[in-house]
Write a structure and sequence with these properties.
Layout: H1 13-25, E1 29-34, H2 40-55, E2 58-63, H3 66-82, E3 87-89, H4 103-138, H5 142-166, H6 172-179, H7 183-189, H8 196-206, H9 210-217, E4 223-227, H10 229-232, H11 234-244, E5 251-255, H12 261-269, E6 271-274, H13 275-286, H14 292-314, H15 319-322, E7 328-330, H16 340-348, H17 354-377, H18 388-402, E8 408-416, E9 423-431, H19 435-444, E10 447-452, H20 458-465, E11 470-475, E12 484-489, H21 502-517, E13 523-527, H22 530-543, E14 548-550, H23 557-566, E15 571-575, E16 593-597, H24 606-619, H25 624-642, E17 653-658, H26 667-670, H27 681-686, E18 687-690, H28 695-704
Helix pairs in contact: 1-2, 4-5, 4-6, 4-17, 12-19, 13-14, 13-18, 14-16, 14-17, 17-18, 21-22, 24-25
Length: 716
């Protein structure tokens, strides 16, 4: 409890901390589901810090949600008021760089700057030595004169080196890191928990590179707050642990919003290469006199032509005109043979051997990359050129070597350039099995806690992420049950084939209208997609006197949220797959009722089918893929949306699921399309099946029994 910063834990919080402490002490992994009000962050962080203190380890707490990052900083600051810990918040270089250069440029600038500073220090030492020897020689020491002559020769060499270095690119901020006293910075850094913005501003005032100083300062700290990619990307993780001065077994990782780890890991494992990279690589090779350029161009141009031909052949009547700025997939996978792009590539390639040509391209690309590096170091170029040949050849090598590997799915996509109206494509090796990324991570580190309000079913999460030796725990809503109602409203199932049915639309609209009218305040309404949100927003505007807000793609979500919460009695229509469905709280009077309309299954494209097939194969089950890849993530999204309201013990609210598939009674006749059984047991117990025309009466009675109505509730 020395790391617990408040007077008393919430109900069940002490038990959760004890169980997590015991599990971490044994080096076990923990899957921890806790509803709002459970105090998940401190329940995980406090025992992790205790184990880290006992066993000399570092706690890394990570999230992909900005609001949660701010919450972690607040909790860490509260802890430092009670117990001294060294904590830092770490972000990527791009968000902290004062001169806005890429990673390769930054590395070259650092090397050049360090070389200049080292040469200047050598010069200063030699100048001091020659002055000393001059004084000794003037006092009659003959050997001093000879020694001084040798020192002067060294000084001349150093001056020549410095003249050569003058034309090289350097970073003045990093130069100050190396030449000025930085003790005050580190004293300031660990006085409190500083955010990356704090560090950027402080370093800017002192003309330091805050990012490099932060890297120097994190060695051996107690706590680091960071983004997912610092752990999920194996290359970044290796560097990150080196900066920490820790082996993987010295790290305790805490993942927040852990239901997102699956998609994040899949994203980190996926490799892509666009047609424009191949264009640039071929231009690069055309400007190269190296004899290997012909073989390299031979193999890369064949893959480039095959990529273009593959997506061009896929276009039917009107398809080309319908391409937008968003990437659209072109199916190329085949069950009984290689994918269409590989077949087209093999047909178009003519040469002595693909492997030999790719090897030539890789070696030439590496040499070109070294030349670009040297040119930037020497100040011959203002920016550090990236070698496109190396990138293209590396991708084609991976495509040929890994294209048929387990869990990798080949895809071609196309998009339209908004500026030129040009259509171009990309090839992609899409990763279907997240455990190929996370399994290695969890094997390496000491232990981890994965926490979320929607991480159940635990067995599925463990299987998908490759977790072993797992302890599970779940705590439901700790707030008074009399302050909430959760309804499964038996409106018609919104199957995609029925959504355009006028009778279905009328039934759903009437039910939403009833719910909005009976709510003493704002209502959140989540739909399967933005199109459905727009459809029902229009219908509600025609029927209701309440203000209707519509969340649309590309619009500022935060501005819309501020307008909505400042209103009273409004309704906000949005997609359940949008940014408002999780990580955004609607506290107090921001919203009292939340509706989830329909079962928001994702778009079941070829990628989704590939993931299902990969799960079926990996976990030996005919329906495993559907359950793991579609049904469970969909219900998790629904549960996340329900959690946007009732965020404290005092809040009163209604949560309603508008679709018969959520009801208990639907299981007998809807079979696999019923999702009631996918909810955790304790949440199913709270679901009250209700007919659409009865919802208004139930809501009127519920809200009427609380102080939410200032006067007489509206008539049903």
């Amino acid at each position: 409890m020395r790391f617990f910063p408040y007077d008393q834990p919430y109900e069940n919080q002490r038990e959760a901390m004890d169980r997590i402490h015991n599990s971490l002490h044994r080096g076990q992994n923990v899957l921890f589901e806790g509803a709002c009000g459970t105090g998940k962050t401190l329940s995980s962080l406090v025992p992790a810090l205790e184990i880290a203190r006992e066993q000399d380890k570092t706690v890394v707490i990570t999230t992909n949600v900005h609001q949660q990052m701010r919450q972690f900083v607040a909790e860490a600051r509260a802890i430092t008021r009670e117990e001294s810990i060294r904590a830092v918040v770490f972000k990527g270089k791009s968000s902290m760089c004062h001169i806005d250069v890429g990673y390769e440029e930054c590395q070259a600038l650092r090397d050049n700057t360090r070389a200049v500073v080292d040469a200047e220090r050598d010069r200063d030492q030699l100048e001091r030595r020659q002055r000393e020897l001059l004084a000794e020689s003037q006092d009659g020491d003959g050997s001093a004169a000879d020694a001084r002559s040798a020192v002067m020769d060294e000084l001349e060499d150093i001056e020549e080196r410095l003249e050569d270095l003058e034309d090289q690119n350097v970073c003045d901020y990093y130069r100050n890191n190396l030449t000025q006293d930085t003790d005050d910075f580190f004293g300031w850094l660990f006085e409190d928990v500083r955010t990356p913005d704090d560090i950027y501003d402080y370093a800017e005032q002192q003309q330091f590179c805050g990012y490099e100083l932060l890297k120097e300062g994190i060695e051996g700290v107690d706590l680091v707050v960071c983004n997912y990619h610092h752990l999920l990307d194996s290359t970044i993780r290796e560097q990150f642990f080196r900066w920490l001065g820790r082996d993987p077994d010295d790290v305790i990782a805490v993942f927040d919003e852990a239901h997102n780890v699956e998609d994040a890991a899949r994203e980190h494992a996926t490799r892509t290469c666009s047609e424009r990279t191949f264009d640039s690589a071929l231009d690069e090779l055309a400007d190269t006199d190296d004899p290997r350029s012909e073989d390299a161009a031979n193999v890369l141009s064949a893959f480039h032509r095959a990529l273009v031909e593959t997506y061009e052949d896929s276009f039917g009547f009107g398809d080309r005109e319908s391409i937008t700025e968003n990437w659209s997939d072109v199916p190329i996978a085949n069950e009984d043979r290689k994918d269409d792009l590989t077949l087209e590539f093999l047909q178009r390639y003519s040469g002595s051997g693909i492997d030999d040509d790719l090897e030539a391209a890789m070696k030439l690309g590496q040499e070109l990359d070294e030349q670009y590096e040297e040119a930037y170091r020497e100040g011959e170029t203002a920016t550090r050129t990236e070698c496109q040949t190396l990138q293209a050849a590396g991708f084609v090598s991976a495509w040929m070597a890994e294209g048929s590997a387990e869990g990798l799915y080949p895809v071609v996509s196309v998009t339209r350039d908004a500026g030129t109206d040009e259509i171009y494509g990309r090839a992609e090796l899409y990763s279907c099995l997240p455990r190929q990324v996370t399994g290695q991570l969890f094997d390496e580190i000491y232990a981890t806690v994965l926490m979320s309000a929607t991480i159940q079913p635990f067995e599925v999460t463990g299987n998908v992420l490759g977790l072993e030796d797992v302890v599970t725990m779940a705590y439901g809503l700790q707030f008074p049950e009399e302050n909430r109602r959760t309804f499964a409203v038996e409106t018609p199932p919104l199957f995609s084939s029925d959504r355009d049915d006028p009778a279905v639309q009328e039934d759903v609209t009437e039910t939403i209208h009833d719910a909005v009218r009976m709510t003493p305040g704002n209502t959140l309404a989540f739909f399967p997609n933005y199109g459905e949100a727009s459809r029902y927003a229009d219908r509600l505007e025609r029927r209701s006197d309440r203000t209707v807000y519509l969340d649309e793609p590309g619009e500022s979500v935060e501005d819309l949220r501020k307008q909505f919460v400042a209103d009273d009695g409004a309704v906000l229509c949005t997609s359940l797959w949008g940014t408002l469905a999780e990580g955004v709280s609607f506290d107090g009077d921001d919203a009292h009722t939340v509706l989830v309309v329909g079962v928001p299954y994702p778009h079941l494209d070829d990628r989704a089918e590939a993931v299902q097939e990969a799960y079926d194969t990996a976990f030996d089950g005919t329906d495993t893929g559907w359950r793991y890849a579609v049904e469970i993530p969909t219900v998790r999204k629904t549960r996340q949306a329900l959690g946007r309201v009732i965020r404290s013990p005092e809040e009163v609210g209604v949560r309603a699921l508008l679709d018969r598939r959520y009801s208990r009674s639907a299981k007998s006749d809807l079979g696999r399309y019923s999702v009631n059984g996918t909810f955790p047991h304790e949440e199913r117990e709270e679901l009250i099946d209700i007919a659409p025309d009865k919802l208004k009466f139930a809501m009127r009675n519920f809200y009427g029994g609380h102080d939410e109505y200032d006067g007489e509730p509206p008539a049903p």
